[in-house]
Amino acid sequence: MAEFDPSDHPLIERVRQWADQDPDPATRSETERLLAAAASGDDDAMRELADAFGGRLAFGTAGLRGALGPGPRRMNRAVVIQTSAGFAEFLNERARRGDTASPPSIVVGYDGRINSDVFAHDVAAVMAGAGISATLFPEPVPTPALAFAVRHLGASAGVMVTASHNPPRDNGYKVYLGDADNGSQIIPPDDAAIAARIDAAAAQRIDSFARSDDFRVAGPELLDAYVASTAEAISAGSPATGRAGASLRIAYTAMHGVGSAPARRVWKLAGLPEVTTVPEQDHPDGTFPTVAFPNPEEPGALDLAFRTALDIAADLIVAHDPDADRLAIALPDDAAPEGYRRLTGNQLGFVLGWRAAERHRALHGDAPGALACTIVSSPALSVVADAYGLAYAETLSGFKWVSRVPNLVFGFEEALGYLTHPGVVRDKDGISASADVIALAAELATEGRTLADLLDDATERFGHFSSGQLTVRLDSADAVAALAEVVRSTPPTSFGGVAIERTSDLLTPGLAAEPANVLRYDLADGSRVMIRPSGTEPKLKVYIDTFSDTGSAGERREAADAALAALETAVQDFLNATVAS
């Protein structure tokens, strides 16, 4: 690298201006260290400054999420303050139009990640300074508890400071709206409107925003209400109370997150069996010392849960991600190296959807209802909906869409997200879903049966659905987008000799709630292939689903699995040839 001359580098002045306004001594000191290192010719420091200050962390339908550190492309107090000022202006504009109460109100929650509590206090203080009535949770809570609180308090909005199951050095800012949105995550065009207000706020000095300590710190009653409402919903229509299934042995991990205490309260109040916790992972710890990637889907994330389960000969493993909005379940399996196998999100979504349909019929008879999943999840719910006279919907990815399906009874996404009680929370909720699974396992245990037996029952009644994923990794997001365009412009007519009966391009207006870069292929044998670029990484993702309803449960499973393997090979060959061309 050529000798560094700060006076000739336009980035440096922006960095210095940021450091001058930064309210956090830690990130201000880190910025000054990087500046000094860059001035002495340190290439790595210059690259870090260019990355952290060369743009802005994008605000979208998932809010913000990024690595901790200084600069507008990192999660830090300055970014949180600017974001809150912009969001406050959006809420005040809504109030002036009469779209929400005047003054608006907001509830703020946070998880156990590094700086989550600091960021949450900044959110509350900026909101209060902007004339918005703010309520702050007094301690770290699960994300579904915040989503619940927006509706419970009749708030105009909610902010949850969390990065869910992201790596340890990440944090985020997740936005919910009340009123007509019923405590759901934001969707277009609100995301763009909020982003525009944030950009306007970012053009001002950080110290120009009013702050106030005139916000309410809630007592225990807010989390108590979530626990009580969730337990009541679980108990309705379920015989798994009292000592039902008391002999069931359950291993549980909170993955160093905030789920353990509230989840165990829900389970106890609903009369469900006690669990044996993974002690090293049972309390919030934002450093996540025992897992490199705190996501139950990741290899190795459940190793300590497997150990605990083997120690107690567990019938069931229950795992939450760090903010407890996702759920993983594992069952004993002698063929698995760890002695247990994790159910896929599609398998668990199928079973929970079936249970929700049964509960809806028992409690509400023939009243309208709907089962929903995202477009990249297994279509298995469709046969359950048909069997119970319920509507069926496939939405774009994300619970911001699933939660808005009319007359929703149950919704899920294959990435371990389940919305089992829309009357309580309008977002995925790993705590209520885990309670439903434990209740179901407890009921089966009284009959001498297991969840594995129930999966066989589902195959015999509805047919067997097999699901798989393929990934094509490329050098850049641009390369991925280009590959998707090649596939779109020269579409396949068959895979592995099986004709494609229908091709759907979800960029076509009217095929989805919002145009999406997703290609869907429905094959003549009932199989389905979905292709889309990843929204976060330079890779093309492919979702494949097959089905069989011929023969015994075992024969159906073997046929669907064989069809899946053949289709995966055919799709991989097609994509390899497309890349090579």
TrEMBL record:
Pfam families: PGM_PMM_I (PF02878), PGM_PMM_II (PF02879), PGM_PMM_III (PF02880), PGM_PMM_IV (PF00408). Residues 57-202, 225-330, 345-461 form the Alpha-D-phosphohexomutase alpha/beta/alpha domain. Residues 1-29 are annotated as: Disordered. One of its GO terms (molecular function) is magnesium ion binding. Keywords: Isomerase, Magnesium, Metal-binding, Phosphoprotein. Its cofactor is Mg(2+). CDD domains: PGM2. The keyword Zinc-finger does not apply. GO terms for biological process: carbohydrate metabolic process; purine ribonucleoside salvage. Gene3D superfamilies: Alpha-D-Glucose-1,6-Bisphosphate, subunit A, domain 3, Alpha-D-phosphohexomutase, C-terminal domain. It comes from the Bacteria. Residues 509-549 form the Alpha-D-phosphohexomutase C-terminal domain. Belongs to the phosphohexose mutase family. This is Phospho-sugar mutase. It comes from Leucobacter tardus.
